[in-house]
Amino acid sequence: MFCPSCGKEIPEGATFCPNCGATVRKASSPANSPNSQLTFPGIINKSKMNIFGIIASVVLLLSSFLPFVSVDVFGSSLSASLMDGPDGIIVIIVAIAGIVFSLLGIDIATIIAGAVAMIIFFVENAQVSEATGDDEFGALAAAMIDKGPGYYFLLLGSICLIIAGIIRFIQKKKS
């Protein structure tokens, strides 16, 4: 058991920390409480929503390397990932920030990271749509473009990161 104030180890069942004198609230069993959190000495706070945010951030990270779109023409296929442009680096930075914010339990920053990833998704989607054009050749080009796993990973990761931050924010407000 660790002191919630100074992070030093204290005897099991103690009501006061022998190091800093802070009052230690006796917690219910972590397995039985719905908002169970394991607090480690230092700054890392581990809860189910933090893990969900980390997984969402890893999905975002993977979206940078997976094919975002592919074009099939006469049996040949050409794929492009986010790493083929500057957006791949931005998504990697956002994903790493999402991991850090989720580990630290910073809700608003986690939501913002997810929103930035969602904006990147919409920008990339608009660029793909713009590249096809509005004429009959654009319709033919659009028919040849397939969305790859990177497209869906970016969408899923950004939505899940926003949800993780919102749920954790609501949980903190209730407690």
From TrEMBL:
Ranges where the Zinc-ribbon domain occurs: 2-23
Transmembrane segments: 51-69, 90-123, 150-170
Keyword Transmembrane helix among UniProt keywords: yes
Domain of life of the native organism: Bacteria
Residues making up the signal peptide according to the UniProt record: none
Keywords: Membrane, Transmembrane, Transmembrane helix
The protein's name in its UniProt record: Zinc-ribbon domain-containing protein
Organism listed in the record: Butyrivibrio fibrisolvens
